[in-house]
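User: Can you help me understand a structure? I only have the sequence.
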Amino acid sequence: MRKNFSVRAQEKKINPKKILVFGIFFLTAVFFFVFHKSILPIEKLEINGLFLINKEEIAKMVQINESLLSIDKEDLTSKIFSLGFVDEVNISVKLLNKLVIQIKEKEIVARIIYQDKKYYLTSKGLLLSEKSYIYKYNFPEINLKKKIDSQRLILLSYHLALMKFYDKNFFFKISEISFEGIENSDIFIICNFKKYIFNWNLQFEDFLKMRYLDSLNLSYRVYDLRGKYILTKES
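Assistant: Let's start by predicting it. Here is the structure, written out as tokens:
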């Protein structure tokens, strides 16, 4: 009986090695919990891919000297998407002290004015309200007197994006887009030197009908963009 009691007593003895390991683990956990915000602080912030959005609007979402370990990438990504003009976000760390945010913005093809409010039309037909953090670039402006069908806006955005693809300086030539006053035409684009007429079903023989735009003898140039005709009246 005494022998059995002695064996059990030895089994119940606490192993000092286990205590040491547990103690080190506990202290490490406490140290990390208390001091993790000072480990690997953000010393540099790099934001790439911005054209429309003011960089400061993104920068103020990140606190310099905050630990890279405490950055919630999912939360930061969600905040950036909430700006409304963003298509893609990628967040990464470089050199253990730099946070890099790569952004792909939505492609804007026109600025729409309706009832004294301004909106931005994307290449995919989305309408975004104007924000204070958006730079006012030279986008074609569309003044709407009444609402138009959403499908027509989608077609408009598609063709404007197509024009931008074929002519990188297209937006710099245009000052206004109007839906008013042009017979047999869907969109009339006015600029300083040229007039552009968009018509989804425009045929070559229809060009003579456009002569009423000016009584002078004017030459016309035709662009065929993947089956969509664009008529240009030269200055």
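Now, to help you interpret it: Confidence is low (pLDDT under 50) at residues 181-186, 207-218. The longest strand covers residues 86-94. Let me know which part you'd like to focus on.
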